[in-house]
Amino acid sequence: MNDQNHSGDEHGALGDAEYAEFMELAAQEGFDPEEVEGAIGEAGHGPLPVLAVVGRPNVGKSTLVNRIIGRREAVVEDKPGVTRDRVTYEAEWAGRRFKIVDTGGWEQDVLGIDASVAAQAEYAIEAADAVVFVVDSTVGATDTDEAVVRLLRKAGKPVVLCANKVDGLSGEADATALWSLGLGQPHPVSSLHGRGTGDMLDAILEALPEAPAQTFGMAAGGPRRIALIGRPNVGKSSLLNRVANEDRVVVNEIAGTTRDPVDELIELGGITWKFIDTAGIRRRVHLQEGADYYASLRTAAAVEKAEVAVVLIDASESISVQDQRIITMAVEAGRALVIAYNKWDTLDEERRYYLEREIETELAQVAWAPRVNVSAQTGRHMEKLVPAIETALAGWETRIPTGRLNAFLGEIVASHPHPVRGGKQPRILFGTQAGAKPPRFVLFASGFLEAGYRRFIERRLREEFGFEGTPIHISVRVREKRGRKK
Fold it and tell me: What is the pTM of this model?
């Protein structure tokens, strides 16, 4: 392993000598050492641990999620037909960050509540490091709750039991009764008013693993993990069968063919990969209302388990809002990205022309993602898939030494300074790459950097260093104003 990809465990991405040099530079520019260390530590974590929130409809799961993330973002209406595209959020408690998968409480009468809750819980638990099981303490444990308990025991994940809707001392006895579920101590909480949530969050932090330290240039143990995602019926199952050279997955013209989700070990290009297939969204043909919700939940679970997301788009149809949302989900999760346009062999010249225009306008924000034009049906250009995945993973793991990065930033500031705003011109003083997988940069500046200038910095970073196939995260710390010395 070469030196530029080595990282000291104590200082995240920075080795000891690089760290000392960087902290000296920060001191010269008037930054507080603790503030600098905090900024590097915050950006330099590995993948955040994942917490799943599960339970019956109307027990207060989304209200609890909003309470934990500190803003009203999760949908709190449990009416069929409520669009739920986003199911994963980022939260922080006691200085530790983690992700929450909100299962929201979709109720599908035709399926039955038990089956609906079980399907949601299964998808969310699959991605999770720990689970919060929310029970309505005013109702007590129901048969549906007992069914979820059986799922949780089978999964073997750490569980924190939330006895919700305890608004005062009189409700404490109701919460105590939930010891009968056999999941340990029930935490009496009012997610609506915030009562008891602090103690429960302390218990959650004990159950969650720490975000792992960065290990630059080193793959995680076992085969590289690929999430094959896309809206229903774009050909995910057909693609998986094609790369496996056998029928591993049920293929059906009906979107959302029922099957048990299975991760597939497949050898491609002499390398074994683990494909995390999302083709089978567990629902019945006549249940249309919840389809997008279940697709989002299943996709979120797959993306959280993966290192690279291959998004499959049906090239014969216009790029849809749902296609864009799925791509955004992968980008926000910080995964390497490849976009595969399926059914390419069916396109005539006119459709190809219009598709190129759609890609330019609708997907301009991910122009950095490798693109492959394939046919899952005929196998056309399938040999291009592995090189695209390898390119994306290489970009995802790229690490730029601090000295080289600061030389680059110095050139940028000299040739393209930030616009003057209100008589002031903020300036980037120095920066470092605090993390990889995906690349995360912390820039230290003399003033606030506008979003347009941050996008310009990202564009120049890509032009200079590549970063093909990976999102880039840039955070900015502004030097606090200090009184001038006389």
Answer: 0.76
Alpha-carbon span 33 to 27, nearest angstrom: 7
Mean pLDDT of 14-19: 64
β-strand partners of 53 = 102, 132
Question: For 456-473, what is each residue's pLDDT tens digit?
Answer: 999 999 999 999 999 999
Domains of the chain from N-terminus onward: 3-45+399-478 (3.30.300.20), 50-207 (3.40.50.300), 224-395 (3.40.50.300)
Higher-scoring residue by pLDDT: 12, 374: 374
Q: What is the DSSP pairing of strand 308-314 with strand 224-229?
A: parallel
Q: How far apart are the first and last CA of the chain?
A: 51
Centre a 10 Å sphere on the Cβ of residue 90 and count the other Cβ atoms it contains. 11
Residue 261 pLDDT: 47
Q: Above 70 in pLDDT, residue 278?
A: no
The answer to whether the beta carbons of residues 407 and 464 sit under 8 Å apart is no
Q: How confident is the model over 435-449, as pLDDT tens digits?
A: 889 999 999 998 899
Provide the phi-psi class of 3: left if phi over 0, else alpha when psi is between -120 and 50, else beta: alpha
SS3 37: helix
Q: Is 270 exposed, middle or buried (0-12, 13-18, 19+ CB in 10 A)?
A: exposed
Give the E-state strand segments of 1-147 in sequence order: 50-54, 88-93, 96-102, 130-136
Three-class DSSP category at 479: coil
